[in-house]
């Protein structure tokens, strides 16, 4: 899991005098907006400037609904661009600045093939994201018995096939206890974990030799079998930070003297945020809707959370990856300019 953070750039005067940040930001936003929208009428220009000022004032943590397809980083860029467009902040103009004031990031990477809750921090809320990494998460996962892939999910190449016809529902239920509590788990090779500063998944896609990371301690609070219709089975899993559902499903298949891979994966809960109650769909990715969501979500978090400092570099090595991405760069997990 990883926290990814992107920053929009502003004049250095905004950051140099925190006490006057709001006023300076408003002035800077107005200049950028007017320069890009010279053909707008006066009322439209004032409206855009007000929206930009409101965007810069947003701070806290909220949740969005990530669909299948994009990576978490790509989704973050999509969210960022929608907000900038609404506020009338042109990318070309803003990419020339040197200092960052608007920060937006996600806490807890979801695979591109997965959907569900993605926690987002904006402004000072990006400093809260490390706490989301270690919090509990809940997933609904559908696995397929008798088939293994190199990515441990349906996006990969089939590497093995084994019989599964003798496996019963009772067989699966009886072994789930082995995967409950404090256990050791080997992370998948295709993951956001890094070697020499590069993601393992990136190295694998390049065809480079990658050694599996050693097994590490993880926690499963609860796991239950929701449905079994061979070769498919559905699990409801509540776990702690750093846990990989793909590895769990693969390990279950191996424990049953067969193999298994993930077909569908949905994160239904991360920390206090649930998919049903808190995750904003894309049509709600507006400055107004996010401001409302920040107010609602503030009551879900402990009061002291906002005062926490970012964790040490040791935590970063375990899965915290913060990056500043300028607006004129290509998008993607690999296109980061600075890792903190």
Automatic annotation (TrEMBL):
Residues 96-245 form the Pseudouridine synthase II N-terminal domain. GO terms for cellular component: cytosol; nucleus. Residues 246-307 form the tRNA pseudouridylate synthase B C-terminal domain. It is found in: Cytoplasm, Cytosol; Nucleus. CDD domains: PseudoU_synth_TruB_4 (cd02867). One of its GO terms (biological process) is positive regulation of pre-miRNA processing. It is an enzyme of class 5 (isomerase). GO terms for molecular function: pre-miRNA binding; tRNA pseudouridine(55) synthase activity. Pfam families: TruB_C_2, TruB_N. Keywords: Acetylation, Cytoplasm, Isomerase, mRNA processing, Nucleus, tRNA processing. Its EC number is 5.4.99.25. Its main location: cytoplasm. InterPro entries: PsdUridine_synth_cat_dom_sf, PsdUridine_synth_N, tRNA_psdUridine_synth_TruB, TruB_C. It catalyses: uridine(55) in tRNA = pseudouridine(55) in tRNA; a uridine in mRNA = a pseudouridine in mRNA; uridine in 5S rRNA = pseudouridine in 5S rRNA; a uridine in tRNA = a pseudouridine in tRNA. Belongs to the pseudouridine synthase TruB family. Pseudouridine synthase that catalyzes pseudouridylation of mRNAs and tRNAs. Mediates pseudouridylation of mRNAs with the consensus sequence 5'-GUUCNANNC-3', harboring a stem-loop structure. Constitutes the major pseudouridine synthase acting on mRNAs. Also catalyzes pseudouridylation of some tRNAs, including synthesis of pseudouridine(55) from uracil-55, in the psi GC loop of a subset of tRNAs. Promotes the processing of pri-let-7 microRNAs (pri-miRNAs) independently of its RNA pseudouridylate synthase activity. NCBIfam families: TruB. This is Pseudouridylate synthase TRUB1. The lineage of its organism: Eukaryota, Metazoa, Chordata, Craniata, Vertebrata.
